[in-house]
């Protein structure tokens, strides 16, 4: 399948090359400049700013466009006759119900959980047995990523909030393997590998995948691997970077000592992710929370939804209709307005 | 024998051939695969006269089999300007362009993919057909990186691809149920069709009903005297069965209720039996109602063409309610009609402040959930009658019926009208068996013929898309002896008849109110020996 091979080569190759650049570039730049701090300034100083600016710009761009109609997706019994049991959080009618619905759909990934293999009835080929594995993989990935990201707050907040310490305690308590590794690190890594493996193994998912789908996976893998290497193998001293970051947050430039390759690659990859986030499909985070099909209440027949741009259209009025058919209407004994 | 059949006949296709679906995509990146057409998988192009009747641009003669589709001068600009206009006018579209992660959760949920294995029938790729153009002309990364960013040039090949695949989608929204972001492929299909229409490219099976409806008030193009003849004929038939002559009020000023239902139910079996059920019910209740000839269509094929056309057709319902001075509107059994009524009508053509909150004159129930739009579904109306014990029903009259219920995509996923028809069905028929859980309610599988796809010339596509539903029906037929598929949609009644004959022979399709009409005990008349189809009771199917 030459075309498929080319498709894979373009998109996987492109994504891998981009991640390789993100990892190798900082070391190269540091070597060329003979100094580390300007390199660190990009991911730690500029990237968070870029994230905020671009994120806000993108969401603002979305929000500027109106929602012309109220067309929610209903996944359960409506609110109608009082005798019939309704499904409030599948077919929300009030704002409160909408909020719960969105929270359930977005944070518990309920739509993915709905997947059941339709295959047995429909014959060969469709049975892939992966129905809820995607839900599991996605939940593991997002959950682990969130915990790992929160754990990193201790790098930037002094003193760190209590819940960060609590997360740390939890992770330490569930450490596994030797040398000891945080459970969330292992889950994150496995979930990333699962998502990547699924993308490559399922032929129809491979068909639809673009560089934009591989790149974030490769980038997150690079971040996870460099992070695990630093913590558990090289035991890299991160306090220099921490001081630098805390200094930046306070508006001061605290010049760090040398940072090693792993640290540069890790921090620079994270910076890349931050900048890439608002420019890419990773915006599915705010996208899901704003999706009109999920966030609108199904109360259409009760409360009129206003479309400010409701266009005027040409309609055929009754008078013109009757004029066209009046003779036949009279002949058929149908009432008319003008005899 | 099959060789003598034509591609527009179900018999042309061997079941074993259709069942052998290849789910591995063909070689080549989908962005570059050329699109081809063969008989049985495409709809006839819209005739220029139908576009001209509506004052639409670029009406011209073309064929999907032609190399050159005679696209109008400056067609790329027309498409891109249209795309920009729609993107600026819809947050939904903007989000759906940007947020898809191509996880593939939707892929095998689409009835068209299930039945065809064609990768471009995966909802995600159907959307990418448009997204690839959006990226090329509306995003920086797409402009610079091209193919690497999943972007591509707008060529005539893309237009052909859009025509093929946006008319292989029934806008059923099943994919959206499984999408973590609720991405609604129907929005893409509607956008794609809207852009094509600006080039004079559409399906005749969509545009002829639209043109008819604009001129005569209904999709079939029945003139006022024809509506009267049809209804009188149905009253005659009903009299044969019941011995009771029912009045059929038409265009009557001052009636309490305007009744609007799809015109297909007045003309073609088995919809006509459902229409007879309405007539029997309204007579028995002594309902003060009227049909209209000007608003003689509940359905709205404008939904399948463009938002503007949808509004132009829909405007007649409120206009007629105002002219006739009714208090509220009752709607018959129809799928996409209820999508328009429930989600669009009040916004487009409201406010309906000249009407009153629908109130059942029999039970006194005020349907508060419809106090804005002022229109309720007949299943809601009848379920309320039953809940109040105001109907005398004899389910033994449906004794020969072993029923299952097909949720139509629009009432299920755009309203959540799931339990009302079931509540009615259980009272009028003693034998009722649900199909598999993942093929009903919000996860219902499509009939394969909605959204303007119910023609004959695309029979292969319809049979393929109906395979999932057909097999689920065959399963309850084999397990419980089900012989009747009950549904509340006029398009279902037409298209599922074909699907059942093909995939689940021995099962026929009936409207909910056909069974209500059978079971309804009416005052006077003669003892019922026959059902509304004039078959001896107990001897059906």
Short summary of the structure?
Chain A has 339 residues and is an all-alpha fold.
**Averaged pLDDT of chain A:** 88
The CATH superfamily of chain A is Transmembrane di-heme cytochromes, Chain C
Unreliable sequence segments of chain B: none
Strand order of the largest sheet of chain B: 2-1-3-4
Q: How many H/I helices of chain A?
A: 16
Would you list the SSEs of chain B in sequence order as H and E?
HHHHHHHHHHHHEHHEHEHEHEHHHHEHEH
In total, how many domains does the architecture of chain A comprise?
A: 1
Amount of helix of chain B = 40-55%
User: What's the total helix number of chain B?
Assistant: 23
Mean of pLDDT of chain B: 95
Number of domains of chain B: 2
Q: How many runs of DSSP E, i.e. beta strands of chain A? A: 0
**Which structural class best describes the helix and strand composition of chain A?**
mainly alpha
N/C terminus separation of chain B:
27 Å
Key words describing this protein structure:
heterodimer; A: 339 residues; mainly alpha; Fumarate Reductase Cytochrome B subunit; 0% strand; elongated; B: 541 residues; 2 domains; four-stranded parallel beta sheet; three-stranded parallel beta sheet
Written account of the structure:
Chain A is mainly α. Chain A has a single domain (2-75, 114-119, 127-296), classed as Transmembrane di-heme cytochromes, Chain C (Fumarate Reductase Cytochrome B subunit, Up-down Bundle), CATH 1.20.950. Helices cover 63% and strands 0% of the residues of chain A. Chain A is built from 16 helices and no strands. Chain A has helices at 2-33, 37-64, 95-107, 110-113, 119-122, 133-151, 153-156, 162-173, 183-201, 203-208, 211-232, 239-249, 261-276, 284-290, 292-295, 318-331. In chain A, helix 1 crosses helix 2 (37-64) and helix 2 (37-64) crosses helix 12. The longest helix of chain A has 32 residues, at 2-33. Chain A is elongated and about 100 Å long. Chain B folds into two domains: 14-202, no CATH class; 209-519, no CATH class. The two termini of chain B are 27 Å apart. The radius of gyration of chain B is 23 Å and the shape is globular. Chain B has helices at residues 15-19, 48-53, 75-88, 91-99, 111-116, 123-138, 140-145, 156-166, 174-178, 185-197, 204-216, 224-242, 264-267, 271-285, 307-324, 335-349, 378-387, 409-415, 419-428, 459-465, 467-480, 490-503, 512-519, and strands at residues 257-260, 289-290, 328-331, 375-377, 403-406, 484-487, 508-511. The model of chain B has no long low-confidence stretch (mean pLDDT 95). Chain B is mainly alpha-helical. Chain B is 45% helix and 5% strand. In chain B, strands 2-1-3-4 form a four-stranded parallel β-sheet. In chain B, strands 5-6-7 form a three-stranded parallel β-sheet. The interface between A and B is large, with 106 and 124 residues.
């Amino acid at each position: 399948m030459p075309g498929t091979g080319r498709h894979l080569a373009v998109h996987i190759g492109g994504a891998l090359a981009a991640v390789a650049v993100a990892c190798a570039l900082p070391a190269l730049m540091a070597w060329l400049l003979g100094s580390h701090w300007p390199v660190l300034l990009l991911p730690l100083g500029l990237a968070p700013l870029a994230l905020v600016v671009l994120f806000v710009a993108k969401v603002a761009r979305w929000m500027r466009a109106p929602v012309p109609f109220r067309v929610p997706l209903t996944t359960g019994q409506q609110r109608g006759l009082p005798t019939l049991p309704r499904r409030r959080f599948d077919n929300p009618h009030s704002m409160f119900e909408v909020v719960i619905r969105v929270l359930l759909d977005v944070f518990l990934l309920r739509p993915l959980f709905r997947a059941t293999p339709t295959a047995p009835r429909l014959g060969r080929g469709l049975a892939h047995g992966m129905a809820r594995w995607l839900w599991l993989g996605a939940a593991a990935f997002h959950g682990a990523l969130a915990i790992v990201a929160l754990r990193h707050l201790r790098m930037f907040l002094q003193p760190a909030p209590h819940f960060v310490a609590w997360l740390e305690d939890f992770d330490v308590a569930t450490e596994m393997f030797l040398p000891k590794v945080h459970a969330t690190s292992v889950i994150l890594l496995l979930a990333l590998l699962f998502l990547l493996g699924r993308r490559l193994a399922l032929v129809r998912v491979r068909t639809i995948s673009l560089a934009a789908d591989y790149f974030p996976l490769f980038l997150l893998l690079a971040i996870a691997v460099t992070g695990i290497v630093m913590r558990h193998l090289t035991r890299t001293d991160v306090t220099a970077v921490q001081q630098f970051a805390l200094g930046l947050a306070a508006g001061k430039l605290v010049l760090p000592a040398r940072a090693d390759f792993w640290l540069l690659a890790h921090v620079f990859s994270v910076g890349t992710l931050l900048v890439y986030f608002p420019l890419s499909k990773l915006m599915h985070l705010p996208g899901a929370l704003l999706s009109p099909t999920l966030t609108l209440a199904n109360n259409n027949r009760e409360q009129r939804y206003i479309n400010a741009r409701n266009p005027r259209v040409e309609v055929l009025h009754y008078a013109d209709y009757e004029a066209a058919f009046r003779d036949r209407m009279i002949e058929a004994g149908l009432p008319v307005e003008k005899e | 024998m099959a060789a003598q059949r034509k591609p527009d006949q179900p018999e042309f296709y061997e079941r074993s051939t259709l069942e052998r679906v290849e789910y591995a995509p063909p070689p080549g990146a989908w962005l570059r695969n050329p699109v081809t057409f063969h008989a049985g998988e495409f709809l006839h192009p819209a005739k220029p006269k139908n576009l001209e009747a509506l004052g639409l641009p670029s009406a011209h003669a073309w064929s999907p089999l032609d190399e050159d589709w005679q696209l109008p001068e400056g067609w790329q600009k027309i498409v891109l300007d249209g795309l920009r206009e729609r993107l600026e006018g819809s947050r939904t579209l903007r989000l759906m362009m940007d947020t898809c992660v191509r996880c593939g959760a939707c892929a095998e949920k689409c009835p068209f993919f299930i039945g065809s294995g064609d990768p471009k029938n995966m909802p995600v790729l159907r959307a990418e057909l448009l997204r690839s153009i959006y990226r090329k002309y509306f995003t920086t990364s797409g402009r610079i990186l091209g193919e690497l960013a999943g972007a591509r040039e707008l060529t005539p090949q893309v237009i052909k691809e859009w025509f093929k695949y946006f008319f292989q989608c029934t806008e059923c929204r099943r994919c959206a149920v499984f999408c973590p972001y609720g991405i609604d492929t129907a929005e893409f299909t509607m956008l794609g069709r809207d852009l094509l229409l600006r080039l004079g490219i559409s399906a005749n099976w969509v545009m002829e009903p639209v043109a008819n409806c604009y001129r005569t008030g209904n999709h079939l193009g029945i003139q006022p005297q024809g509506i009267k003849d049809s209804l009188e004929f149905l009253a005659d038939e009903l009299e044969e069965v019941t011995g009771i002559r029912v009045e059929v009020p038409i265009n009557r000023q001052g009636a309490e209720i305007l009744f609007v239902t799809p015109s297909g139910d007045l003309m073609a079996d088995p919809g006509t039996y459902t229409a007879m059920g309405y007539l029997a019910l309204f007579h028995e209740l002594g309902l003060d109602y009227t049909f209209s000839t000007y608003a003689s269509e509940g359905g709205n094929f404008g939904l399948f063409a463009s938002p503007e056309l949808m509004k132009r057709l829909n405007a007649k319902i409120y206009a007629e309610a105002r002219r006739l001075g009714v208090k509220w509107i009752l709607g018959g059994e129809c799928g996409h009609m209820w999508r328009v009524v429930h989600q669009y009508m009040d916004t487009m053509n409201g406010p309906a402040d000249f009407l009153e909150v629908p109130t059942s004159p029999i039970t006194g129930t005020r349907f508060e959930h419809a106090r804005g739009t002022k229109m309720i579904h007949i299943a809601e109306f009848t379920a309320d009658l039953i809940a109040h014990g105001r109907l005398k029903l004899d389910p033994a009259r449906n004794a020969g019926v072993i029923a299952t219920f097909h949720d139509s995509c629009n009432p299920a996923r755009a309203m959540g009208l799931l339990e009302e028809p079931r509540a009615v069905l259980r009272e009028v028929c003693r034998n009722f068996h649900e199909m598999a859980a993942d093929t009903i309610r919000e996860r219902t599988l499509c009939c394969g013929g909605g959204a303007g796809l119910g023609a004959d010339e695309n029979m292969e596509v319809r049979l393929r898309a109906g395979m999932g539903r057909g097999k689920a029906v065959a399963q309850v037929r084999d397990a419980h002896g089900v012989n009747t598929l009950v549904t509340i949609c006029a398009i279902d009644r037409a298209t599922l008849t074909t699907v059942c004959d093909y995939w689940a022979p021995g099962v026929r399709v009936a409207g909910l109110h056909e069974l209500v009409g059978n079971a309804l005990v009416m005052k006077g008349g003669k003892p019922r020996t026959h059902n509304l189809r004039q078959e001896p009771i107990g001897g059906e199917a």
